[in-house]
Write a structure and sequence with these properties.
By secondary structure, the protein is of the alpha+beta class. The chain has helices at residues 12-19, 26-32, 37-44, 109-112, 115-129, and strands spanning 21-24, 63-73, 79-81, 136-147, 167-176, 178-180, 183-187, 193-196, 203-208, 212-216, 219-221, 227-236.
């Protein structure tokens, strides 16, 4: 696993409490949500139909995305898709794209209703509730494709950052004809950190957003056209972020 030790599922809560991050390898994740690689690819296929991100403030045209929101009741496991809403972050967490509403097209209904998708959000949320007890999570799901249009793509154009939530999950779904895209996780209030590259489809990084900052380095093409597909899930107590 990219020369990085995967955390067993029963040890994920302890790893998050100890160091603020954990990695789950793909076989563990897929087994956990009762899916095989072929089933997972039916979900990943929708990444070929992501609209351009029209809010990039660095002038780039390298990012494509969709976005949907959920509320998870941790006691019952009820997962509810909310009415479509804007994504919003304060400038304190995202100096480049914070402070204004960003509207993206919703995630396709065939994905949001898929049993694997539902199991992933529900089981991950309930696991994280074992780290920070909360009756419910407000979940934002982001489908991302960053490509090498113009010669370079930036997975995190805002740089090393926090998201203003409780937990973040970054799932690597595909790397096609690229180099770069190294993941970096550092203590928010200290000098220590780790650097690694997720390459295996459905390998997953979980982070405690209050304790660490994270970023991914730019990608460059190895051929004519490359891309990097990820699914980012954020879990927040008390409500979604929004303008005061």
């Amino acid at each position: 696993m990219d020369a990085l030790t995967s955390t067993s599922l029963d040890q994920v809560p302890a790893a998050l409490q100890r160091q603020g991050w954990a990695v789950i390898n793909a076989p563990l994740l897929l087994d956990w949500v009762h899916a095989d690689a072929a089933t997972a690819e039916t979900v990943h296929g929708s990444w070929n139909d992501l609209p351009p991100d029209t809010h990039l403030r660095d002038g780039g045209h390298y990012r494509f995305r969709r976005h949907s929101c959920y509320v998870l009741d941790n006691a019952s496991g009820a997962l509810t898709l909310t009415p479509h809403r804007a994504h919003w972050q304060p400038v304190t967490y995202n100096a480049l794209h914070g402070g204004f509403e960003r509207w993206f097209e919703p995630i396709d209904a065939a994905v949001t209703g898929h049993p694997m998708w539902q199991a992933l959000l529900r089981q991950m949320g309930q696991m994280l509730a074992g780290v920070k007890a909360t009756p419910s999570w407000f979940i934002e799901a982001h489908q991302f494709r960053v490509d090498t249009t113009g010669g370079i793509g930036r997975p995190t154009p805002e740089g090393a950052h926090r998201d203003g939530v409780d937990f973040v999950a970054v799932l690597m779904l595909d790397r096609h004809a690229i180099k770069g895209g190294e993941t970096r996780v550092f203590e928010a209030d200290g000098p220590h950190g780790v650097r690694f590259t997720l390459t295996e489809p459905w390998s997953t990084l979980l982070i405690d957003d209050e304790r660490v900052i994270h970023e991914s380095t730019p990608i460059q093409p190895l051929g004519e056209h490359g891309w990097r597909d990820t699914l980012v899930l954020t879990f927040r107590q008390g409500g979604f972020q929004g303008p005061a």
